[in-house]
Amino acid sequence: MELKGWRGCCRLAAVTIFKLKYFAMTPEKFSEINLINRIRDRFPLPGQDVIKGIGDDCAVFLMSGSKAGLITTDTLVDSVHFDLSWHPPEKLGRKAAAVNLSDIAAMGGIPSFALLSLALPESVEGKWLDEFFKGFHEMLQAHGVSLVGGDTVKSPEGIILSVTVVGEAEQNSVIYRSSAREDDLVWVGGPLGEAAAGLLLCRRKIPEDNNGRFQQLVNAHLDPEPQVNLGRLLSSTGQVHAMMDLSDGLATDLAHLCQASNVAAEIDASQLPISDAARDAADFLQVSPLDLALRGGEDYKLLFTASSDKSELLTRQIMKELNQEIYCIGKISPGQGVFLRTADQTIDISFQGYDHFA
Ligand code: ADP
Ligand code: MG
User: Fold this and answer.
1) Which ligand is nearest to the Cα of residue 165, counting in written order?
2) Could you say which of 145, 173, 201 is where a domain stops?
3) Cβ atoms of 232 and 175 closer than 8 Å
4) Mean pLDDT of 10-35
5) Which terminus of the chain is less hemmed in, N or C, by CB atoms within 10 Å?
6) pTM of this prediction?
C-alpha cells in the first residue's frame, strides 16, 4: 500500500515535469496552416515516385503505366466534429467515409480501398457500433470501395474515428489545387452554407422544426454526399484547371486554392448559391446567410476553376450526364487574396473560414 503511494507520487512528479517542459503556461498560438507548414518544413521532399506530397486534398504517387495513386486521411473527433446527442450512428458512419471520399473526388479520382481506425471509450455500446458500421459500409459500397484494414484502440474519453481512403486516376487527369489560371471562372458544385445552418439548428435542438422545413439543412450536416461522380466528370472534360473540396468554408478553401496557384479570386456575392431553406434558417437563427455560405464549413461540394470559354457547354454536359447544377461564383485574377464583391464594396475575405486552432 505504502509502495503504491510512493510510486503514485513519483509518477505524478514525472508527469508534472513533462507537462512543465512541453506544455507551457502561456501556450504558443498555432493556426492550422502554421502547424502544417511546421510539419512540412521538417520533412524532406518526397522521392521521385511522389507527384504531390503535403498540400493538396490527396497525396499523389506514381503507379504502373499511366496511373496515379491517390491517398487521403481524415479524422472525426467526438465533441469537435460530431455530437453524439444528435448525430445518429448510421449517419456518422456514412459521414466518416464521405469526408474522405470527398478528398478523392477533389482530385478527379476513383476511390478503391479504405482503412478504419477506431479509438473507443469503454462506454460505447454494441448497438451504436452496429449502426455506425452499417452507415460506413453503405457509403463505401455506394462508391465501390472495400474496407481492407484499420486499427482498434481504447480511448480514455470520447470516440475518435480516423479513415484513410486510397484511390486512383490517370496521371494526366488528376486535378490539383495549384493550377488555377488568370481569367478562369470559379465554380462550386452545389449550394453553400447548408451544413453550417444544419449544425446551428442541431445545436439549438430544433432539427425537425415546422414539418421538416429545415430537414435538408440538418441532413447536409449529418449526412453529406461526396461529389465523386462530379469530380470524375469534371476531370474528363479537360476544361477544369484547379479543384478541391469545400471543408473549411469557401473563404478559407478558395484562399488555399489561390495561394497554391499564385493567383487571386473575386467572388460576386449575388452569385453565391444559397438555398431558400438556408436563407429561411439564417433568418430564423438571426445569422447572416452570407456568413453561412462563406465561413461555414463542411459543405463537401467541389470548388473548381475552368476556362471561361465553353462554360455553357460545361453546365449543359453536367446537367445532361448527372442531372446536376453547378454554379459560377466569380473569376480568377492576377495578384493575391480572395475578394468578395457586394453591391457597395469589395472586401478581402481570405482565410475567414473554419480553423481548428483559431
Ligand atoms: P483537407 O481539408 O483536404 O482534408 P487539410 O486541410 O486537412 O486537407 O490538410 C491540408 C494538407 O496538409 C493536406 O495535404 C494534408 O495531407 C496535409 N496535412 C495535414 N495534417 C498533416 C499532418 N499532421 N502531417 C502531414 N501532413 C498533414
Ligand atoms: Mg479537402
Assistant:
1) 1
2) 173
3) no
4) 68
5) N
6) 0.92
